[in-house]
Amino acid sequence: MKRKDLLGLRDVSRDEILEILETASRFREVSKRRIKKVPTLRGRTVVTLFFENSTRTKVSFDLASKRLSADGVHISAGTSAVKKGETLMDTARNIDAMAPDLVIMRHSCAGAPHMLARNFDFSVINAGDGINEHPTQALLDMLTMQDHLGDLEGKTVAIVGDVYHSRVARSNLYGLRTMGARVLLAGPGTMCRPEMAGPGVEVRHKVDEVLDEADVVMMLRIQRERLPKAMLPTSREYAHLYGLDSAKLARASDKVLVMHPGPINRGVELSPEVADGERSVIMEQVTNGVAVRMALLFLLLGGSDDASA
Amino acid sequence: MTLQLKGGRLLCTATGVDQLGDLWVHQGRICRSAPHGVEAQVIDCVGQVVTPALVDLDARLCDPGFTWRESLRTGGDAALRGGFTTVVANPETDPVTDDPSFVREVIARAGLESKVEIRVAAALTKGLKGQELSELGLMAEAGASLFSNADRLVSDSLVLRNALLYARPFGLPVMLRAGDADLESLAVMNEGASSALAGLRGLPAAAEELGIARLIALARYTGTHVHVLGVSTKLALDQLRSALASDVSISGSTTPLHCLLNDAEILASGYDTDTRLMPPLRSEEDRLALLEGLADGTLLGVSSAHAPLSRVDKELEFAFATPGATGLETALSTLLSCMPLEHALRALSAGPAKLLALERSLRDGAPAELLVLDPKATWTVEPSAFASKSANTPLAGRQLRGVLSAVIHKGQRLHFA
User: Fold this and answer.
1) Tell me, what DSSP letter sits at residue B34?
2) Is the separation of the CB atoms in A119 and A90 below 8 Å?
3) With 60 as the cut, is the pLDDT of residue A308 above it?
């Protein structure tokens, strides 16, 4: 792969996505060994710079870099100089002075990883910037879909929930569009806006309006604690109109995949029996996350050709 | 010193003059024929345009208080480079220009430190907070040229109504921005396809439309002249057009960058914070409507919206960066790069001069405030070479049209800093 950074899927080509997914497939095997480690990135330094809380994304990246033998350092905004008033650029200059090879960054502002990528020589992976993109999540989602559906060309993926303010949705939208899939969006009027429609992307409203056509239903997390004011009346109404339960799921194909980026609000966007039911591939998404992140570290840092040796 | 501007294209949008010829500057006034018995210094203007100098309604000169961004001296130098010989300083200083003594101080110091004329817009409300009235009468006596609430909204309609009623007897226009504080609270760029694509929270055009509807209603009701700064959307412009048709005492201006750029610039620049403005860069449809509004006279003109900011303000995440861009040095060339010469000159000279009741024309006897300009020559914007202390502009590296060869202020040829 030629690129220095992975900031989003907006401008990533089909060939690049296929290369990442193919490499990730090969790396999956490493995580199944008793000794889950290969020397591929020995001596390379990977920094995770997180300005927002994260559990699964952070653990997933940490494991990915450890399993490739890279040296990892984690900086979270709560413990760094940021709390003392240091700007992002100053923090980055200091990190840069210690010669990292790659920085994995999560930030509440769209464009923050782009600023680092533009100004420094180290590689940058966007682990979520504001409501803009979360490309590694979309890649692990696409790997999971591909495992079950094969080529994504012509497949229909419904994304339901706070689409407008979701970086997961945005990255999936761009990635799926590039792969030739058809995307149906649904959600409340404050969260799913007509301007997101475009070639291959249709905007609907209720969850019922997307189920019969979908090969995949991706339910987004409602972050009630982080919603700006007057976005949603109640969880009860949300669950009724936009949540997925087994009765609604019966409308869908019996092969439909139910996905969720986690953590799940059981009883809001997903009923417990659907979240843990047989159509759910949510835990496979998590497993694939490590493989996708190993693949990206490997491809961006140009590790040895024999990926899983 | 008497000057002879020789062989240029004399172009005056105020009087409609457009002809080849000579023009003299004598004792601070324009003479259309050679004054008797004096030796004139000749400025060769062949192939160039001779036209009234520019007037700016809204430049943040940051002095006193924010002099690491700009000062009266550097702001004046930047204005001169851009062809402005009269600039109205925005009241957003520290302390805010909301007291007669501050108005006097800025005027007095500007007379000593700036090469061009700096006038003062006095803060409409105390501290620009939109809650209490400033001493508008005393500030008018102290020499304020306008009242302005800078780019801060006066959200309380009762305060705004009273401020307009109170300002009316002093005869000075009130400059305000049209917006809606609630809709603006989370927004960092124009809302629409571009914000959906960039993943940034959007400010809908509707915020400006609500704001301008309110300003129109209150201008109609109070009879005070309201000048709307930073008109940026098509529908706000339509509202302004119909208000003007029903004789409301109102006028509006936009900014140079809104005439040249649209909201696709933010993503195209990789979230460059110099593209973050207030009002934000709008859609291409809005941009084209603004050009039409300038062509048909709905907009009185263009103000530089000069907002010098330092790295401390801009070298931040997009959402945390302070909105604004410098404008004085690039305003004329920005307009010349996207509209006909006559429209650009009217927008930056005759229009703003009218609001300030100044004469900017080539009439015999008019004040000698003049530019000699090659409107077709090009130059490349290099912020590090600005006279301004600040370099924040989304135009860096861009090739623009229009190069000045002389600026004449109070009958004297000024030399660029």
Assistant:
1) P
2) no
3) no
CB contact under 8 A, A111 and B200: yes
Residue ranges and CATH numbers for the domains of chain B are 53-355 (3.20.20.140)
- Nearest-angstrom CA–CA distance, A48 and A73: 6
List of domains in chain A: 14-133+287-301 (3.40.50.1370), 135-282 (3.40.50.1370)
Read off the pLDDT of residues A64-115 as tens digits, 9 standing for 90 and up: 999 999 999 999 876 555 666 788 999 999 999 999 999 999 999 999 999 9
Residues of B in contact with A197 (CB under 8 A): none
Q: Which of B196, B270, B318 shows the shortest C-beta gap to A109?
A: B318
Give yes or no for residue B175 having a pLDDT over 70: yes
Count of pairs with CB atoms under 8 A, one residue in A, one in B:
54
Which chain A residues are Cβ-neighbours of B196 within 8 angstroms?
164, 193, 195-196
User: How many CB atoms within 10 Å of residue A194?
Assistant: 9
Chain B interface, Cβ < 8 Å to A: 186, 192-193, 196-201, 270-271, 312, 315-320
Q: Mind telling me how many Å the CA of B275 is from chain A's nearest CA?
A: 12
Count other Cβ atoms within 10 Å, centred on residue B247: 8
The pair of three-digit structure tokens given for residue B309, joined into one six-digit string:
């900011």
Region for A187 from its dihedrals, namely left if φ exceeds 0, alpha if ψ lies in -120 to 50, beta otherwise: left
Phi-psi region of B229 (alpha: psi -120 to 50; beta: other; left: phi over 0): beta
User: Which residue, among B128, B156, B129, B62, has the nearest Cα to B147 in the 3D structure?
Assistant: B128
Please answer whether residues A58 and A66 qualify as being in contact, where contact means their C-beta atoms are separated by less than 8 angstroms. Answer: no
Cβ of B192 and A195 within 8 Å?
yes
Q: What is the pLDDT of residue A255?
A: 96
**pLDDT higher for B310 or A2?**
B310
Question: What's the whole-number average pLDDT of chain B?
Answer: 97
Nearest to B315 among A87, A111, A131 (CB): A87
pLDDT reported for residue A302 = 85
DSSP letter string over A198-229? BTTEEE--STHHHHTT-SEEEEPPP-GGGPPT
Candidate from A111, A112, A196 with C-beta closest to B196: A196
Confidence of residue B67 (pLDDT cuts 50, 70, 90): very high
> Are residues A88 and B200, on separate chains, in Cβ contact within 8 Å?
no
Q: Virtual CA dihedral for B202, A189, A108, B265, nearest 10 degrees?
A: -30
Give me the interface pTM, i.e. the ipTM: 0.77
CB B48 within 8 A of CB B372: yes
Predicted pLDDT at A7: 98
Give the chain A residue whose CA is nearest to the CA of B198.
A132
Q: Do A228 and B186 touch (CB under 8 A)?
A: yes
Is A167 in Cβ contact with B198 (below 8 Å)?
A: no
Write out chain A residues lying below 8 Å of B270, CB-based.
Answer: 111, 114-115, 118
**Angle, CA B198 vertex, CA B196 and CA B202 arms, to 5°:** 55
